[in-house]
Design goal:
Length: about 180
């Protein structure tokens, strides 16, 4: 099997210095209520992990450097955080089943993914999933949705009024879910 196709975020997608992105990540951190330990963040260490650690006063271990489309998630976790990863994977069902296996019986998965019109999808995303289909995916992987929220991606009128595409992006969101495994 050719394993040269890793689905890691590019540096541009992490957007470390952007105050707008920091605000969105802070909203996600405040969404997270129950966080039994140990806690893991899947993907490259990033600003979201730092913000969550600060807001929740939690110790979070990052799991990265593995191919989530192919390899099992190491360890056993009370909480797994998966922010903006699912859309980068070839096989989201395989990934979610592995997350379920890595969670404690009473564990919690916090997962976020973008939601926007198809013509705004990017070349870095293999899957951007609508609301109905993501519910089917969660159910098939053995999760129930305990809580969900859409966060509007508003970057300020100056940014959105600079062209037709940025204007259309007024209708884009990130969705965050609190998921629990079903027996």
């Amino acid at each position: 099997m050719n394993r040269d196709f890793y689905t890691f975020n590019t540096q541009e997608e992490i957007w470390r210095d952007n105050k707008y992105i920091q605000k969105v990540k802070s909203q996600k951190a405040r969404f997270m209520d129950e966080m039994p330990g140990p806690i893991s963040d899947l993907g490259e260490p990033n600003l979201a992990k730092e913000i969550i650690q600060e807001v929740k006063d939690a110790d979070i271990e990052s799991i990265y450097g593995i191919d989530f489309d192919y390899e099992k998630i190491p360890g056993h976790w009370g909480t797994i955080i998966c922010l903006e990863i699912l859309e980068h994977l070839f096989n989201p069902l395989f990934f979610l089943e592995n997350v379920k296996d890595a969670l404690d019986k009473e564990g919690v998965l916090y997962l976020s993914t973008p939601y926007r019109p198809k013509f705004l999808w990017t070349e870095h995303h293999y899957h951007e999933i609508d609301d109905e289909r993501i519910r089917w995916l969660f159910e098939r992987a053995g999760f129930i949705i305990e809580k969900e929220q859409k966060i509007r991606l508003f970057r300020g009128w100056k940014w959105h009024l600079r062209g037709i595409r940025p204007l259309i992006r007024l209708n884009t969101f990130t969705r965050i879910y609190k998921l629990k495994p079903v027996d």
